[in-house]
Amino acid sequence: xxxxxxxxxxxxxxxxxxxxxxxxxxxxxxxxxxxxxxxxxxxxxxxxxxxxxxxxxxxxxxxxxxxxxxxxxxxxxxxxxxxxxxxxxxxxxxxxxxxxxxxxxxxxxxxxxxxxxxxxxxxxxxxxxxxxxxxxxxxxxxxxxxxxxxxxxxxxxxxxxxxxxxxxxxxxxxxxxxxxxxxxxxxxxxxxxxxxxxxxxxxxxxxxxxxxxxxxxxxxxxxxxxxxxxxxxxxxxxxxxxxxxxxxxxxxxxxxxxxxxxxxxxxxxxxxxxxxxxxxxxxx
Amino acid sequence: xxxxxxxxxxxxxxxxxxxxxxxxxxxxxxxxxxxxxxxxxxxxxxxxxxxxxxxxxxxxxxxxxxxxxxxxxxxxxxxxxxxxxxxxxxxxxxxxxxxxxxxxxxxxxxxxxxxxxxxxxxxxxxxxxxxxxxxxxxxxxxxxxxxxxxxxxxxxxxxxxxxxxxxxxxxxxxxxxxxxxxxxxxxxxxxxxxxxxxxxxxxxxxxxxxxx
Lengths: 284, 212
Fold this sequence. Notes:
heterodimer, A: 3 helices, globular, B: Urease accessory protein UreF, 68% helix, chaperone (chain A), cytoplasm (chain A), nickel insertion (chain A)
């Protein structure tokens, strides 16, 4: 996919056409391995399964419309059958451009069967001035299923001197185990962004990330997670990061002055926490 | 407001009501230790953000939801529990909620079921027929007043300075309460990653006066 022309110094123009896209991916267990069992793609949404040396499938999700704007609608659905393992990553940063009317709507529905493990590794969602995004992420875990969910958010680009002030974000995550609430995230931003400059809110940060690991062993994984967030080779002073774990969930929050140090810290954390190299799209 | 309601609000949200609030700083202890809150002005900003964008806003919406539909209080409680961003924040809402439900059941005959703090208060306020707007404002006032008391000990600040900070937050409390009464389910949420990080950092501090 080509980078959108909006990376020019003039900044992003509105993109009035409405884009629609839907992807449904299903993984099943065959001969002891996880295999793609269902693939449906429509409109401006695509899924690719590049050959990789990973011991399980790694799928890349692509928005071919080049960003999101008001009225766009994307649906991503992933289902892992019992005993499978798969990694999903978005191909590149998702850009949320100025909206002429309404919000872009993104629905993510993930279902993970007993004994299965899902890695959902979203790359940065960058919100530009006037951007409006309504996102719902639903994760349903069955039995002893486990999942790692990552989504970073970036507010404008420091290098371009952008400080967006008029942003609308509703980002609601509902993680459930056997239909019971396990963890919820409810991020809601309304203009003006300057109202979030206090230290309890965003402070001077421009990039944040939330990582959730859901699994019965969340408590055991807290100490190694904390080591990856601190000390030698840790994220450094330009990134604030901390972790907590209880009742089968581990939550990591990160906050940084810009997207680049956040990404570096996140890559280090994810590589160590997963014990696996990141999908190639993350390496770029 | 009738005299019965006034007495109930003054007692339920008094620091003497035995829910153990004095033990919780909501991450403020680590924000002070890390230098994010060093004086009265910083404290005002921190608390205003927590009220507008953090737990104040979220709890107020959940409280109103449980009070309007007390038959869904258990569901609201499960949501409040799931919304906790860290172990200590989870403890803070669950322990205070359980104590509030227990004491209020013993004194006023309400349902003793343990619930997350905003759900327990919402359910009790419906059972006791308390005016909702006043209840939400009193809950937020008690939340802010408790954190001011924590800061008076930790920053440290003079008692009078602490009360001046609290007084300056009255309009913020009233606005957050009014917002919560108008909120629909999609309005739930806020954005206070700084406060969440402070609460998480608190877990690994070696010197701690507060449980959160």
